[in-house]
Amino acid sequence: MTANLTSTNRATIPRTVWALGFVSLFMDLSSELVHALLPVFLVTTLGMSVTALGMLEGAAEAAALIVKVFSGPISDYLGRRKGLLLLGYGLAALTKPLFPLATTPALVVTARLLDRVGKGIRGAPRDALVADVAPPEIRGACFGLRQSMDTIGAFLGPSLAIVLMFWFADHIRTVLWFAVVPALVAVGLIAFGIDESGQAPAHRAFRSPLHWRALREFSPGYWLIVGVGATFTMARFSEAFLVLRAQQTGLSLAWIPGVMVVMSLAYSLSAYPIGKLSDRLDRRLLLALGMALLSAADLLLGMGQSVMSVFVGVAVWGLHMGFTQGILAAMVSETAPSTLRGTAFGVFNLACGLGVLLASALAGWLWDHFGASTTFLAGAALVMVPLLLCRYAPRQAALRAG
Question: Which of 7, 72, 96, 224 has the fewest CB atoms within 10 Å, counting from its CB?
């Protein structure tokens, strides 16, 4: 046990993980500046229904997750991750000017879907690259650090949106143009800040992750994590509904991005400490706590009617993200073969993509037909399924060795 602790204390987070963290920071700054204003822009300016918004958000997030099914195996086949990272982040950067140029929902839908496809292309290779370079004894900390920097960007984006909305007198189109520059910075950081030359490429024949011969290489423990992740995403829906809920309380347009600021602040402050803690404690317990936090957030958002209750609910929502996202990624990498990590993240995200598509479409329909409160209360009830499954998930190897 003493030897394990000494090794953990000596291990340091690799330069590549830091570089990926800054890439995530700048791209999320760009993306969240847009997303903090997009639901209001679509519903109030362009006249989209909440049901249609839910379908768009579900389809967009599902596209991102499903594309990872293919980007993960391709990155395993190539033995390199950087090229796919450039493609994914580059596509997302190219969509940013389309949002302020849009005059109809159709162009916004196109831009949103392409942006999420870019996210799908880069997501599994990025997570696999973190797993490749992270020392096993601090893998949770590495995933937590990258996730924290991602959410720092998600905090800065809406914060900048608030300032710009005041500066430009609530002119949303003008504010959306400011998302272009940080997206280009993220692409530059990948091009010049990530070096894979020191890693020997683990080239292997390409195999479809949907082929049963490939899938049978994964352990029962891995498939249980997939089940937990899929049912958990069915209990969660797009953060666009948090923005619309805040608007219902009468919050002024310029302050609406504050919803994403509060959520991202809670997320970023919790992700790294929880990731680090998960290297020493049973990850199943922390994951279950995160799911309980989601249920509490839904109850606050569903039953509260004031601005304060909404913001408290949003903060708890952010905490649940910090408790769950990095831990789920670490659990996937822990239970997957090292040569198939990209594929493992791809399959995991396919299951989650189907879950989030159903969740957001259902949330939009419930909102239009029964009201916002019903939407959030239904989410709180659905959390119980993955919460019960957590008990049967495998413990990490480090705890077994200790």
Answer: 7
